[in-house]
Amino acid sequence: MPGMVLFGRRWAIASDDLVFPGVFELLLRVLWWVGILMLYLMHRGKLDCPGGVLLSSYLIVLLVLLAIIIGTVSAIVCVSMKGTICNPGPRKSMSKLLYVRLALFLPEMVWASLGAAWIADGIQCDRTVGNGIIATVVVSWLIIASTVLTILIVFDPLGGKAAPGAPLGPQPLDSRESSQLLSGLRTAATGVWETRVRLLCCCIGRDDHTRVAFSSTAELFSTYFSDTDLVPSDIAAGLALLHQQQDHARSPPEPTEVVTHSPGPFQEADLDAELENCHHYMQFAAAAYGWPLYIYRNPFTGLCRVGGDCCRRRTADYDLVGGDQLNCHFSSILQTTGLQHRDFIHISFHDKVYELPFLVALDHRKESVVVAIRGTMSLQDILTDLSAESEPLDIECEAQDCWAHKGISQAARYVYRRLVNDGILSQAFSIAPEYRLVVVGHSLGAGAAALLALMLKSPYPQVRCYAFSPPRGLLSKSLYEYSKTFIVSLVLGKDVIPRLSVTNLEDLKRRILRVIAHCNKPKYKILLRGCWYELFGGSPEDLPTELDGGDLTQPLLGEHSLLVHGSPAYSFSSESPLESPTKYPPLYPPGRIIHLEEEGTSGSCSCSPAARYTVRWAHESEFSRILIGPKMLTDHMPDILMRVLDHVVSDRAACISCPAQGGSSVDQA
User: Fold this and answer.
1) Whole domain around residue 528: which residue ranges?
2) Taking CA atoms, which of 79, 280, 387, 409 is between 20 and 30 Å from 111?
3) Metal-binding as a keyword (predicted)?
């Protein structure tokens, strides 16, 4: 529901968010009250010391004050449990209860100050009573401090825009006031988000690229969040409901653009060959992360293997390799790839906004010059990821409307300049002129590798690219089609990054609004069930929503809703894709896509009981919606992807010799 309006401004907390913090405070207050009561009853005979009357009065007043607070918090919890997310009517008394609760902090602070003063003067009474008073004062100030911290957390800098004078009812979609409010809100939100990003990234330099990235990130966040009034718990509840709804759909419809057919011998052989290439080149994509990923994958032995290089001076072997900021990375790269010092042409861990670390090596096994680009590992990389506007990509190809993700395109241009202008590729091919060029990367590095391959296609026609878990919002439609001839992407399970784009995020926001608007259960029950469902599973049959298929005409029913009527997010009754803003047109993943899908332990290869994944070619439209689940993040981790690739390649090799099956279980789409 919309954030509550208190003291004339909107706060980033809803009236149904107080169940769990209220229950926690209630439990603490009741235990505290019982403890003080027992202290008073058991030791009131020992309060005949100097100042004992004052202490006795202090305890009695404290008991009364705690009883009043307990009653008020109980009322807040009960009221917060009423209604649903989008039906705040039964909770209309919440603001008055909160005013009462906040007013009770004044006598509590006064009484805690008096207790602190008496402790400072020294207590001559029984030691147990003194310790009880000290504990009371400490607990009082801890609760007061936690309340102040909570107020700071839920403070919304844009809350002044939701003053009580805001319109309460629905407005026409072409309302001029709505458009002006949306424009003003986005301008203010952009400034607020830019300030937040600058504070978060205060340790990053202030060059031109960084300033541009700050502005791009702030504009992205303001565009996505400024036209809705969802508090964080609403989003959490919506994601929990979407996960259950997604699991409830037993057989999701196939994308309309996908033509399913049985794999022919050529496609099957091509898939096996490309999967083996992915398995091989993933080692280089992982090596580009340097020592952090290596130690993470080898927690017991990794530090011992690479730790020596962090301390010893550079040897002559290191001087054979061009680059900068090698530090502890070189040893981990050697361990991951299995290559020798002389096989590396250049290694750079220079890391700035729009400038990614990369390495260039000679792969004698595949007879290729490998360029591996690192994925996201720093705040600078995150800013590169979040510079999500589209910009034209100036390359020599027959494709029209060549657009790409701005931040990743800038990063690819940086690597291109280093490779070409600094003569790194020329040096590599002067050593091995018969080798072919292969560009690889994971995550952000996969996106940069794909764009770099597009840039290098003209001077190096035989270039190949293997993009592991690339972002979806990368290429225009024409570039996506063009890239299929020389780029292969690999996606694991429900990985969120290959499904992540501004268009898909808008679709996710629309689905969250829709599912919570049709919810017939209070938020605390949704969150409790969602936690249980994520931890222990269960049946999603009793989904607490009433999706009757009707159009949702008023998604948020709260009083001071900031979901501006006339904004793009408001009109979402249709199931068609949202119209993207001009700066964020629909973008697509690179190349042909190999999808590794988890199928459980019951694999179709009977001679390999550990087979848990099917491998198939997938269409990009299968990644046009973000899937919610506990593995949406873990499936993106490079160590998980490497482990799955090891199992899949070994299982498929075992399936070839399986007499019961006589083949593989790959589905071709």
Assistant:
1) 208-249+502-537
2) 79
3) yes
